[in-house]
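SEQUENCE, STRUCTURE TOKENS:
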Amino acid sequence: MPVYEYEHTKQACSLGTTFEVRQSIHDAPLTCCPECGQPIRKLISHTNISTTRSNAELKDLGFTKLVKRDDGVYENVTARDGDSRYVVRDKPETLPNLSKTIGD
């Protein structure tokens, strides 16, 4: 069952200014504190979603990842066949060939 965060809109009670409540996703949001009956509002909580992917996964998904190596020099860690390993500022021939990954 999900945990939702609520915040007192006026004065905190023994639960504190903010508190958590386990509720079904089908339950309506609470409008008053279960402890003191004061008005409360539901907060938007931070989620725990991992966005860390390996370079190989990024490449398989069609992304290009450039890592800065020097002033104006980036390493293409997801380089595909025929792509330059390094992208250099003011040298368009070193840019990745996006037609390999972008389709209609």
About this structure: The chain has a mean pLDDT of 87.
